[in-house]
Design goal:
The protein has 286 residues and is of the alpha/beta class. Helices cover 46% and strands 12% of the residues.
Length: 286
């Protein structure tokens, strides 16, 4: 392992404890994540799609998502974990996805075992590909990646076939070459604990809101043995709630005086960008 690579940095962080990775959907949010003192950042397929004005059903191209990866990983300077949905296609595209994600600055990526077009992991009505077909994708991805890059296999089986099936798939995906397993849509702390006990190794937990998983503290995930916890759409949900309320005020009142106290000031924005007017800007400043 080389700590000079994004994947090596993330591996070192996880060796020291459970890593929290808030979701960033733009480069500016990535800078905010770094400024807040987090050690890693997450790029959600759903949040990226929403930013483009489309739903989370696999509509964005590999090229579009790689641009987002480059912007967020560069702006934040943090190890970046990225959603790869179903891998943009079959085995050949999964191989290409690994290569392009790494070139774009990602430290890790996860692929899932849903049939395309996929849907949010916390919605009902999902369909899975076979364990064998997913294992083939994982083997191809493992062959295409560098040693440090972290390959994460997500299974959505719990909501379709139950926890035992999800654990069986997790074990099969480890055997196929996944560095980490991501059990999606678990419904309780007990289920997370049982999954960790029966599928030992590196684990990712998804701490999303308004879904099937209750709010669980980071410290609890650490106790249960999870290495990485993502917060995929949290910041986007908070931001868009604020945006819609501000638009309502502007439409109703015709001006924004009542909103000034909840705005980021010009000085705060410049501080986040590491920018001082009249001074040559250093793009590495954070």
């Amino acid at each position: 392992m080389s700590t000079g690579t994004p994947g090596g940095q993330l591996r070192s962080l996880m060796n020291a404890g459970t890593v929290a990775a808030p979701g960033a959907y733009t480069a500016l949010v990535g800078r905010a994540v770094a400024q807040a003192g987090f050690d890693a950042v997450y790029v959600s397929g759903g949040a990226t799609a929403n930013t483009a004005g489309v739903p989370d059903v696999g509509l964005l191209t590999l090229t579009e998502v790689c641009r987002t990866i480059r912007e967020i990983s560069t702006a934040s300077g943090l190890p970046t974990i990225v959603d790869a949905d179903t891998g943009y296609g079959e085995v050949e595209m999964v191989r290409r996805t690994v290569v392009e994600y790494e070139r774009s600055g990602a430290a890790a990526m996860h692929i899932e075992d849903q049939v395309f077009p996929k849907r949010c992991g916390h919605l009902d009505g999902k369909t899975l590909i076979s364990t064998q077909d997913m294992a083939e994708k994982i083997r191809a991805a493992a062959e295409a990646k560098t040693e440090d890059f972290i390959l994460i296999a997500r299974t959505d089986a719990k909501g379709i076939d139950g926890l035992d099936a999800a654990i069986d798939r997790g074990l099969a995906y480890r055997d196929a070459g996944a560095d980490m397993i991501f059990p999606e849509g678990l419904g309780s702390e007990d289920e997370f604990a049982e999954f960790a006990e029966r599928c030992p190794g590196h684990l990712l937990a998804n701490m999303t809101e308004f879904g099937k998983t209750p709010i669980i503290p980071l410290s609890t995930f650490q106790t249960m043995g999870y290495d990485l916890v993502i917060y995929p759409v949290t910041m986007q949900r908070i931001a868009m709630q604020a945006v819609t309320k501000a638009l309502d005020v502007l439409k109703r009142e015709g001006e924004v005086s009542s909103l000034l106290d909840v705005m980021q000031t010009r000085e705060e924005l410049y501080d986040m960008l590491g920018y001082t007017p009249g001074v040559e800007w250093d793009p590495s400043a954070r």
